[in-house]
């Protein structure tokens, strides 16, 4: 992994939950192994993120242009959302029910992270899984994919949140390498690892 010549230890991925009562998955590289786990409250997240410079979050980090808040009336989709839809990638609109709580929490945390000087990016494990031919909720296949990629990941049972956080971390690696897929617009962007980057990483992890 050192052959990549980037600081893998500067990246952390979060599969953020909308509520602090539900598991938020995380993943990062400690120099020897890829660590994945889960936590709950904002204070736990803020404590963990201190040592990282690049934060990848599976949650909307911005509102559609023309929409002042989640509570007000306005557009439901950002330009990057429309790009996802055009590519045939299914997703939940950020104005849909529970997604509102997730978006609000993600935007609040992002504001704090950015004030700390961190680079924060929205990512989407579903888009990553689709691009490499994985079923989004097939944990066994996802874990096997990670092992075949030679990720130094522990051999144990994983929650879906943890596996999704690993996908977020991989997307951060691809972004840092300049090889990520980026759907962007003036009201936000979504960054994720695509097939081309995965093929590049196969011989380097």
Question: Would you summarize the structure shown here?
Answer:
This protein has seven helices and seven strands; from the N terminus they run βββαβααβαααββα. The protein has helices spanning 42-48, 79-86, 98-115, 125-132, 139-148, 160-176, 195-202, and strands at 11-15, 24-29, 34-39, 54-57, 119-122, 181-185, 188-192. Helix 4 (125-132) crosses helix 6.
Description:
α4 crosses α6 (160-176). The chain is globular. It has helices at residues 42-48, 79-86, 98-115, 125-132, 139-148, 160-176, 195-202, and strands at 11-15, 24-29, 34-39, 54-57, 119-122, 181-185, 188-192. The protein has 7 helices and 7 strands; from the N terminus they run βββαβααβαααββα.
Unreliable spans: none
Please state the overall shape, judged from the principal axes of the Cα atoms.
Answer: globular
**Mean pLDDT over all positions:** 95
Distance between the terminal alpha carbons, to the nearest Å?
5 Å
The ordered string of helix (H) and strand (E) elements is EEEHEHHEHHHEEH
- Percent of residues in beta strands: 15-25%
Percent of residues in helical segments?
25-40%
Strand neighbour order, sheet with most strands: 3-2-1-4-5
Number of strands: 7
**Main sheet specs:** 5 strands, mixed
Can you count the helices? 7
Cα-atom radius of gyration: 16 Å
- What structural class do helix, strand and pairing data support? alpha/beta
């Amino acid at each position: 992994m050192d052959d990549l010549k980037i600081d893998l230890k500067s990246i952390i991925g979060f599969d953020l939950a909308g509520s602090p009562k539900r598991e938020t998955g995380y993943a990062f590289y400690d120099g020897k192994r890829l660590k994945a786990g889960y936590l709950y409250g904002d204070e736990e997240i803020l404590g963990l993120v201190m040592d990282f410079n690049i934060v990848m979050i599976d949650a909307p980090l911005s509102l559609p242009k023309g929409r002042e808040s989640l509570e007000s009336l306005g557009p439901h989709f950002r330009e990057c959302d429309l790009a996802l839809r055009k590519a045939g990638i299914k997703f939940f609109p950020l104005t849909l029910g529970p997604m509102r709580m997730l978006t609000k929490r993600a935007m609040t945390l992002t504001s704090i992270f950015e004030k700390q000087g961190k680079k924060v990016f929205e990512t989407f494990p579903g888009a990553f899984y689709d691009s490499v031919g994985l079923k989004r909720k097939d944990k066994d296949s996802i874990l096997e994919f990670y092992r075949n990629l030679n990720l130094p990941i522990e051999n144990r049972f994983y929650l879906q949140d943890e596996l999704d956080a690993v996908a977020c971390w991989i997307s951060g690696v691809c972004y840092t390498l300049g090889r990520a897929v980026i759907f962007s617009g003036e009201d936000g962007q979504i960054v994720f690892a695509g097939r081309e980057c995965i093929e590049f990483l196969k011989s380097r992890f």
